[in-house]
Structure formats: structure tokens, C-alpha cells
């Protein structure tokens, strides 16, 4: 799915710090015309790209190119990771020499990444920290996934010129650390049934019961559950609940109350929704709505 990040003409990209306890799960496969850069500052995050699962830990720098469909499938409860995106125009204007030509690519095999040494990591993180100082409230940015889940949200920054200049510097700095290096992580190639399950759950708008899901994936519920947990690293039931939580936040924008939003998101009862919400965010939904 092509995601429109809806960046205004004043901005050549955006940057925000995503945090598990603030950022509603958005687990749909997607890509966008912008180049994306992640820096994991705490915990771990897991993506599926091209039918393969990758898990990245602290101090990992990773890149998602414009034609590269990627899907966040899991993150640790303490995960914190910077998300930066760069418009094609910024890349064309900034990357003029052969040393940076590779940044103009549309796609790569797998996920280009590298682990940073502590000194390099500290430099990149301090650069990112400085650029977000004049940005929107972190809670708002996390709630809106940086680019805006609400139709009327638009990314803003107190000093667009400073941000744009900083994004150019950040792009070149990170590529200097990436160039000529390749990280070594364990990649897991997914079974077609697991790939289908991820697609079905990520794009689902209605019923997502296990029996129906397994049938659509051409396997039994027991086998699909066992295979999914082994290959994705997350129990299928937990992943499905994370997808439902993501849908709940979308439904909240139009539903008249929390119960209506919970049912529309696919939860079987308000009690089930309440337990899953509390497990995910550490508080009940009525208390948490003002924070997340």
C-alpha cells in the first residue's frame, strides 16, 4: 500500500522519536515515495520486508527505500527508535557526488542496515535529539505516527529551515557510517501461509477469527499458530490483538464512544478490549486516552 505522508511544501522530510508506550501499533504493509531511516535507541523492533523477518536492536541504523514495502510486526515494550523520512527532492539536491548516488535507489534486497559503535551512535542520536527540540509534542507525534493518522493533522516544526538543513546533514552523516558496511543479523524467510496471514491481518477490516484466517491461508488453525509464532517471533493471538489496537485508534476518530470503537476494531467484548489495552499500555483506556 502506498502511504501518503502528507508533508507540506515547507518540509523536506520529518523526524520523530517513536516509543512503544506512546505510539499506537500500525502494522500494515506499506511504502512511500520518501526514503526512510530508523535508528534504534532502545529495545528492539521487527520488520517483515520481501517475505523475510528482520529484528534490529539498539544502535542499529536501517534504511527503507521508496519502493520497498515494509511492515512493522513487533517491538519490545521498551522500544524507542527515531524515524526520519527524506523527500526525493531533498535527496536529489543533497546527493550530487558518486559517494551518495546509492541513496537515489528505489529498492534494495533485504534491509540495508549497520550496527553503530558507541561513539558514532552517540553522534547520530545527539544530532536527532537537537532536530526534534522545536517540534510538536512527542505524545502528539506518536499518536499520529509522525505524519498524521487524523485527516486534519499535518506535521509541523517551530523552525522548518533549521529542520530541513539538519535533515540534509543527518542524511549524509548516516550514509557515511553506512557506506561500505553491512550489518549481520539473522533473517527468517517466511512460509507462504505466514506471509498470507500477515497480509490478511494487516489489511483486514472485518472478521479475523483464527479458523477463518487459517482457512484463507490454506492450513489448519493449530499449524498456522505454531508456524506464525516460530517464524515471526510473536504469538499469532498477540499480533492479532496489536492489529486490533491499531484499528481501535483509527476508529476512535469517528466512533461516538470507546465501546463502539472497540467493537469496530474487532474485539469480541469490551472486557476483552480493556484487558488487552491495559496489558499494552499499563493503564485503562479512559485514563490512557489523554496520554497516548
Could you please describe the fold and organization of this structure?
With 292 residues, the chain is of the alpha+beta class. It has two domains: 175 residues, Jelly Rolls, CATH 2.60.120; 98 residues, Homeodomain-like (Arc Repressor Mutant, subunit A, Orthogonal Bundle), CATH 1.10.10.60. Helix content is 40%, strand content 18%. The strands form two sheets. Strands 1-7-2-5-8 form a five-stranded antiparallel beta sheet. It is globular, with a radius of gyration of 19 Å. The model has no long low-confidence stretch (mean pLDDT 91).
Please give a quick description of this structure:
With 292 residues, the chain is α+β, with helices and mostly antiparallel strands.
Looking at this protein, list some descriptive labels.
alpha+beta, Arc Repressor Mutant, subunit A, 2 domains
| Percentage of residues in strands | 15-25%
What spatial order of strands do you see in the largest sheet? 1-7-2-5-8
CATH superfamily heading of the largest domain: Regulatory protein AraC
Shape: globular
Radius of gyration: 19 Å
Amino acid at each position: 500500500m502506498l502511504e501518503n505522508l502528507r508533508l507540506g511544501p515547507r518540509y523536506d522530510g520529518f523526524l520523530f522519536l517513536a516509543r512503544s508506550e506512546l505510539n499506537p501499533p500500525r502494522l500494515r504493509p506499506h511504502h512511500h515515495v520518501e526514503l526512510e531511516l530508523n535508528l534504534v535507541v532502545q529495545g528492539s523492533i521487527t520488520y517483515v520486508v520481501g517475505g523475510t523477518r528482520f529484528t534490529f536492536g539498539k544502535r542499529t541504523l536501517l534504511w527503507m527505500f521508496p519502493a520497498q514495502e515494509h511492515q512493522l510486526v513487533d517491538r519490545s515494550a521498551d522500544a524507542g527508535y527515531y524515524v526520519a523520512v527524506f523527500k526525493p527532492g531533498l535527496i536529489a539536491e543533497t546527493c550530487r557526488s558518486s559517494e551518495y548516488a546509492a541513496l537515489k535507489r528505489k529498492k534494495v534486497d533485504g534491509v540495508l542496515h549497520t550496527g553503530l559503535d558507541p561513539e558514532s551512535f552517540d553522534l547520530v542520536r545527539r544530532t536527532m535529539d537537537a532536530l526534534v527540540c522545536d517540534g510538536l509534542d512527542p505524545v502528539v507525534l506518536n499518536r499520529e505516527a509522525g505524519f498524521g493518522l487524523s485527516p486534519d493533522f499535518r506535521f509541523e516544526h517551530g523552525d522548518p529551515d533549521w529542520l530541513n538543513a539538519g535533515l540534509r546533514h543527518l542524511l549524509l552523516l548516516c550514509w557515511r557510517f553506512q557506506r561500505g558496511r553491512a550489518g549481520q543479523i539473522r533473517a527468517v524467510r517466511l512460509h507462504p501461509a505466514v506471509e498470507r496471514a500477515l497480509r490478511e491481518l494487516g489489511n483486514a477490516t472485518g472478521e479475523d477469527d483464527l479458523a477463518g484466517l487459517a482457512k484463507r491461508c490454506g492450513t489448519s488453525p493449530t499449524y498456522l499458530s505454531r508456524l506464525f509464532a516460530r517464524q515471526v517471533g510473536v504469538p499469532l493471538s498477540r499480533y492479532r490483538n496489536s492489529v486490533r489496537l491499531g484499528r481501535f485508534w483509527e476508529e476512535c476518530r469517528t466512533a461516538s464512544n470507546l465501546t463502539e470503537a472497540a467493537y469496530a476494531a474487532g474485539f469480541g467484548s469490551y472486557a476483552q478490549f480493556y484487558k488487552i489495552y491495559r496489558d499494552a499500555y499499563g493503564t485503562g483506556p479512559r485514563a490512557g486516552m489523554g496520554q497516548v
